[in-house]
Design a protein that fits this description.
Layout (H helix, E strand, L loop, with lengths): L5 E7 L19 E2 L3 E2 L1 H10 L4 E6 L4 H10 L9 E6 L12 H6 L2 H7 L3 E6 L2 E3 L3 H11 L3 E9 L7 E5 L7 E6 L13 E12 H12 L8 H11 L3 E5 L16 E3 L3 H9 L28 E3 L8 E3 L2 E2 L4 E3 L2 E3 L2 E2 L4 E2 L4 E7 L4 E2 L4 E7 L4 E2 L4 E2 L3 H6 L3 E2 L5 E3 L4 E2 L2
Parallel strand pairs: 1-4, 1-6, 4-5, 8-12, 14-17, 15-18, 16-19, 17-20, 18-21, 19-21, 20-22, 21-23, 22-24, 23-25, 23-27, 24-28
Antiparallel strand pairs: 2-3, 6-11, 7-13, 8-11, 9-10, 9-11, 26-27
Length: about 425
């Protein structure tokens, strides 16, 4: 990126319907993750670690907690012109809100005109991964493409879950076709059992992106979506390049977590992503000090595991216990406890994701469940054990048997 001014745009206006009820009161990028983080922290950490210092976050849906998190947490030094700024929808081009990710950029072009960058990196706000975008920018500049799309290799059996990139056989750094969730995908030439899936991250020459969103705004029938409209237009004109994540070398990464990327767009994927964190050799390593994931530093005491009044020892096995948590004679296993959660005497929390300030009473059982902020589970109550009873009480139960309790709910016996 030497000699080039690079500007970052984070698309954070997603409603996240498939994550309900976790998104009933917050934008998807603001959903807590791994105890002390928000989903947006992963995108922002990657950009900052990659050397970007001017970044805007475009928000829209129920954005208060997201805006607050960005403003309180992501404060860079203004002395050097660095910032991470949350920018809500402003209706600058008429009396309408953002109608797609491309429209969000089109309505926010004043931010680009103010900074006058050479290159723009556009990323989503709700994926869990590590990536050095400076390497992708260098590859983009060397390629001569108008846009470069980041792609990750996935098993061909999962092709129908992603936007799949078909390569040009004559120019393997160019995209020949961009297909959404195909059922007839063809494997890569160097790995027939894999396909390239779009990560939703893009690098553009600044003037090229400006032209693209302006033309898209006038295109009849467009959904004004980056992946659905803008990228296919570049593909059709032979101007779309691809960047295989396999080329990316992140400091401190291991063979086990080097190419981890997860779209946590559903309750199942959100739950499974947490399970990826808690093994002794995690699939995604939060403890990489060479490429840290940043977030708000809470003014909280350390976590504490103590015996209860009957001298029963607290246990936490294969789990993440956040700051401020107290486990008093309880049993926590294969779970993530958010800040200030408490687990009472004889209680069991197994295969669960627990958000901030959740209280699990004495003798209660939480099993294969996600509990949002401020949930109270009464002493002796259970959640995730009887799915029929959970549904009868109005809680969400997925097809795979994950029970989700919304913010502030009170679980009684």
């Amino acid at each position: 990126m030497a000699g080039k001014k690079v500007f970052g745009i984070v698309l954070a206006g997603g409603e996240g319907k498939r994550l309900m009820p976790l998104t009933a009161d917050r934008a998807k990028p603001a959903v807590p993750f791994a105890g002390g983080y928000r989903l947006i922290d992963f995108a922002l950490s990657n950009l900052v670690n990659s050397g970007l210092r001017q970044i805007v976050v475009l928000t829209q849906y129920k954005s208060h907690s997201l805006d607050r998190h960005v403003s309180q947490t992501w404060r860079l030094s203004g002395m050097l012109g660095a910032y991470v700024a949350s920018v809500p929808a402003q209706q600058r081009l008429g009396k309408h809100w953002f109608s797609g990710s491309a429209d969000a950029i089109h309505q926010s072009l004043n931010l680009v005109f103010d900074e006058r960058p050479d290159v723009i990196v556009v990323v989503g706000a709700d994926h869990v991964y590590r990536m050095d975008f400076s390497q992708m920018v260098d590859a983009h500049l060397a390629s001569g493409a108008g846009v470069t799309v980041a792609a990750i290799r996935q098993p061909i059996a999962l092709a129908d879950q992603f936007g799949v990139i078909d390569l040009d056989p004559d120019r393997p750094d160019r995209i020949a076709a961009f297909r959404e969730k195909p059922t007839d995908a063809v494997g890569l030439a160097d790995s027939p059992g894999e396909v390239l899936a779009s990560m939703g991250n893009y690098v553009f020459d600044a003037d090229v992106l400006i032209d693209a969103v302006q033309r898209d705004a006038d295109r009849p029938g467009s959904n004004h979506d980056m992946g659905g409209d803008i990228i296919p237009d570049f593909v059709a004109r032979g101007r779309a390049g691809v960047y295989d994540l396999k080329r990316n070398e992140v400091p401190g990464s291991t063979d086990r977590d080097r190419f981890y990327w997860r779209d946590v767009g559903t309750i199942e994927s959100f739950f499974e992503a947490h399970q990826d964190l808690i093994s002794a050799l995690p699939v995604f390593n939060l403890y990489n000090q060479d490429w840290p994931i940043y977030s708000q530093q809470l003014n909280s005491p350390p976590a504490k595991l103590v015996r209860d009044a009957r001298k029963r020892a607290a246990k936490a096995i294969d789990s993440i216990i956040s700051l401020g948590c107290v486990v008093s004679g309880g049993h926590v296993e294969r779970s993530v406890l958010g800040p200030w959660a408490s687990v009472g005497s004889g209680a069991k929390v197994i295969d669960a994701v627990v958000f901030e300030r959740v209280t699990v009473g004495a003798g209660a059982v939480v099993q294969r469940a996600i509990l949002d902020k401020d949930v109270v589970v009464d002493a002796g109550a259970s959640i995730g054990v009887d799915h029929v009873a959970d549904r009868a009480r109005g809680y969400t139960v997925t097809e795979t048997g994950i029970t989700v309790v919304g913010k502030g709910e009170h679980v009684t016996q």
